[in-house]
Amino acid sequence: MKILWSLSRILVFVCLLNYGSAFPLFGQMVPPRPAQAGPSGPGGAPGTGPSSRMTPTGLHETGGSIASDVYSNSIYGFSIKIPPGWVVLPSREPKVATQDAALLKAAQISRPLLVITENAPLKKSNQRKNIQIIATRMRAASGPTAAQDYLAYSQKTVKEKGMDVEYLGDPQEVTVNGQTLWKLASNEPSNGVVQHVEQYVITRESILLQFFLVSPDEAGLKQLEPSIQSLEFKATAPKTVTKGSAKKTKAKPPSNSKTQSSDSKPQ
Q1: Alpha carbon distance 105, 99 (integer Å)
Q2: Which bin fits 109, alpha (ψ -120 to 50), beta or left (φ > 0)?
């Protein structure tokens, strides 16, 4: 089953993000594109019917779980509603036919967390709406403009490399449940069908999260917007002093006081 729309693009994006020098965080990265979600033909591979064998989704391996049409991730601390009845595709680590050390390392630091597609077995994969979530660990903690810079640099790099992606306008700042994300729309041909994509990016410390809404038509994108509007993040827990360290801190003053009284004692 073909998971990624263009695996080479994703790996080049991530590789440049972590090993280049144009931006401190992104380097010469070419940003990841969404995956080609689903089999290449109706009901599975071309000429075959639906498979009866159940394949593990692998969601738990990346901290994911689904309950009552809500996807939650305990590692990255967020939840998002998903359309009812949709199918989760197995999450697989990218396999790269290359000896390039940088690309191989890039494949290990970018992880697909969720690839979910509408349950429409009579449609080809590029005719189905889908939602994809990708997490990338960056070289350093992100700054306040990291998500915006990432998308702006994505546009620049895609244009320079002549990739077949049409970005529609500039990145836009959006607020979802109190969190600031940056949004960028694009069109990308896929086997004769133009895929309409909305990409939402947010950075949290050294993690860059991308949420892709993908549809073969613009009307389908509007139907997916309630999902991104449901996105919620857990509040980052403040750092607290442990009981052990607190006891040590409290124990110091009496010790100093005792020393001082001993020094001041007449000889």
Answers
A1: 11
A2: alpha
Q: Which residues contact 72 (CB under 8 A, 6 or more apart)?
A: 64, 65, 66, 78, 79
Give one word for 44, left, alpha or beta, with left for phi > 0 and alpha for psi -120 to 50: left
With H, G, I as helix, E, B as strand and everything else as coil, classify residue 71.
strand
**Strand residues in 4-159 grouped as ranges (E):** 64-67, 70-73, 78-81, 87-88, 110-117, 130-137
Distance CA 51, CA 1 (A): 11
Strands of the sheet with 232-233, listed across from one edge: 64-67, 70-73, 78-81, 232-233
Q: How far apart are alpha carbons 7 and 4 in whole angstroms?
A: 5
Compute the 3-state secondary structure of the chain and give helix, strand, coil in percent, each to the nearest 5.
Answer: 30, 30, 40
Superfamily of domain 7-240: Mog1/PsbP, alpha/beta/alpha sandwich (3.40.1000.10)
Per-residue pLDDT of the chain (267 residues; tens, 9 = 90+): 343 444 445 444 554 454 443 343 444 344 555 655 554 444 333 333 444 455 677 799 999 999 999 999 999 999 999 999 999 998 655 554 555 565 555 555 778 999 999 999 898 888 899 999 999 888 777 788 999 999 998 898 888 888 889 999 999 999 999 999 999 999 998 888 899 999 999 999 889 999 999 999 999 999 999 999 999 999 865 444 445 544 444 555 555 544 444 444 444
Query: Structural domain boundaries of the chain?
Result: 7-240
Distance CA 228, CA 167 (A): 20
CA distance linking residue 153 with residue 161, whole number of Å:
12
Sign of CA dihedral 38, 57, 224, 43: positive
What is the spatial distance between Cα 153 and Cα 260, in angstroms, rounded to a whole number? 61
